[in-house]
Amino acid sequence: MQFVEAKGAKIPAIGLGTSELQRRTCARIVEQALKLGYRHIDTAQAYDNEREVGEGLRASGVRRDDVFVTTKVWTTHFAPHELERSTKDSLVKLRMPEVDLLLLHWPNPQVPLAETMGALAHAKRIGLAKHIGVSNFTVALIEEAVKACPEPLVCDQVEYHPYLDQAKVRKVCAQHDLALVAYSPVAKGRIKNDQILKEIGRAHGRTAAQVCLRWLVQQNVCAIPRTSRVERLSENIDVFDFALSDAEMDQIFALASANGRLTDFGFAPKWD
Known about the structure:
This protein has helices at residues 23-35, 50-60, 80-94, 113-125, 139-148, 167-175, 195-204, 208-217, 230-237, 246-253; strands at 3-6, 9-12, 16-17, 40-42, 68-73, 99-104, 129-135, 153-159, 179-183, 222-223.
């Protein structure tokens, strides 16, 4: 397994995203992923599956210390006492004393960012999380968060796949030594019919999804594809024994378009 390192955090380059995975399906997929060699599991308060993620981890037989677990605080819990309380609630559900990474799930302009960053840093200082970071933050918000946070931030988790240009966010993350973690890295399955990705895949004996994930890994980006199918789990993690050429990387970068974003809500920030 390859890692992306930032501010002392060693994040496995491929992880399992668990959004929309519920109940027994979630626990079973987490257990299977860990048995197949995954060591990075991503959940969130909003997914309502932290309990099942913890169950899957315990059922796998893999030591807790060997797995990098991320959860995310929902926007309604950004006031300082509420952030601490909700994080403790997440840990009770996960049945863990701490998570490896605690993120703010989306920006929330209703609560002053400096207050929320102070609360996030406090959660780290009292041992609820080894590392802290943000998700869905724009360039301007990353700059503001880094300045306002008394503890180092280690990542920004954002939507990133070949159809969405994230060059500006990648650049600001590199400037601040933040890892970039890509959610929806295979564009919610849309890439599987992409002729360019399929053609590159044929040259390497790989699927379009594997090409896509390899493209991210070669940018030193973590990817957290979600799947509810065990056979896809094996495919998604099998991307470390081939490499894309510079020309192939450029071909994939060229797939980005102005309307490539798939996850957008009314409360989303003004994207870069």
